[in-house]
Amino acid sequence: MTGLRDLIFRLFPHATSPGLLRVGDPGPVAPVLVSGNYALTVRRLKTALRGSDVWLLVANSRGINVWCAAGGGHFSHHDVIAAIRSTHLSDRVDHRLVVLPQLSATGVEPKRIMAATGFECRWGPARLEDLLEFIERGCRVKRSHREMRFPAWERAEMATIWAVPVAAVVIPVLAFTSGGLVAAAAVGAVIAEIFGIFLALPHVPIVGRSKWLTFFGAATLATAAAAGILQLTNQLDGHALIAIATATTAIAALLSLDIAGTTPWHPGTINSISNQFRLELVEDRCTGSAECVEVCPRNVLQMNGRNHLVQIERPDDCLLCGACIVQCPDDALRYRFEDGRVVEPDTVRSTHLNLLGRRTARG
After folding, report:
1. pLDDT tens, 70-104?
2. What is the pTM of this model?
3. Is residue 291 within 8 Å of residue 349, measured between CB atoms?
């Protein structure tokens, strides 16, 4: 039941206690993996690491997953430093290496952890299911494990997160206004609509003008299916059809607002409707350290073997998360808006993202 609760309310903070946890029987030379204290992540980490002997250093991320927490200013190097000190980690292990979650790179600066604690930091893989192979490789990440995947099972989870509150609203409203059978048909339609969109994400557009074909096409198909079921039971009339179409259209409109921002494949869209911005490389600053390449979750950045410098290889896939900007030691990456404004690295490091993806909270 705890796991089901964590899943259904995944979008909301849910904390477990920070501290140093044992997975298996770790000794003084066992690797130390850092995590935030988002309960669902900690539970899944324990499952993914079953059979290994590792230390799990749970830092305070305010009960939020590390990606959102780091971007929003709720998880930083200060929290990792506090966890290392409060657990007396240096007394528990002989080495001085901690593995950071790659997705925390938007707000965690390894050099500050090293300066404050003496612990070197290394980035782990983007997804926790790759951790066992990462450990077997001597805590070295494969290039393919840096990129953020979004498998069907996880898309189904995200659909569930959307579907449960929607059903909780639609059922009582339509049951009161249109009767139980119509309410059931409408709920079935909107749930099918939501799951259909999420499961089809790799193949349909959810940004740009063509996204309307996805959202309202799904609403039309779901309405038609529910109407067909009601027709078979002789319960379809004009009122029922309007109720179902209203529900599915409302959900399509809601999802279209910024479903992109709830996926690990697309940047949020609300914050840039009137003024688009993009990642920019200042070539004469770049020294080819490649730290930006190591933390990019979409494989946007690559090393150019001829001049040993970084290049923006896949700009359309950029999430605008800022991890590369934060980690670049040469300040060679920044944001540029369509109106010509530039956001330099110091601003990115000292500001945080709010729920609409705007950098309005200053650190």
Report:
1. 988 899 999 999 999 999 999 999 999 999 999 99
2. 0.87
3. no
